[in-house]
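Cross-check.
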Amino acid sequence: MALCQRFNGFLHMLLALSNITTTIGLLALVTSVVASGPLVAYSTRSEMMHLLRLICAITLNTWLGDMITAKTIGYAVAVREGVVTLWIAPYIATGIIRAFILPTWLGGTSVGFTSSGSLANDINERDAVHRAPFWPKRARHFFLDCHIWMHLAFFLLMIFGLARRIWAVFGPLSQEPSLSPGLMLWTPEFMDKLVVK
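Predicted model, tokenized:
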């Protein structure tokens, strides 16, 4: 193989490994929200301002990348590509870990490609006449075999964690009864109380 082909394969491998860190980030986000931990760790006000500027620059950079990609494939497809990358990361990370890290007695598999048309299943999804009913066969296949339970658990835990945070701020037992909802939450006094020491 030529040098460019080898370099391209190396970059593709690094990009595939980034799915593992993306999955760890998703798990850390859910854990932080449910445990009511700080979502952003900073020590001084100026550090928080630098973090806000950095996230704004990253957001603008992502938006510009989507706009450049949208010139060729359309904006909806370009935005969907980024979302798909985020939500498919657990599947790719699981495949990498099972193929390259885990031994066979812990669920590891050998690397190989199987075309989807050659996979045998009992739900007959491609046959409109003999297709299995949605409940319970196809629903079980989607939720358990296709691991949709991971996404459902993510959404439910995020909703639970966000509801707990909102209740802690606006509920009757909030620890800051003097602060009213709305813009008062972003006063310097309130922001200084959020500083992680």
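The chain has a mean pLDDT of 79. The radius of gyration is 23 Å. Passed to J.P. for a second look.
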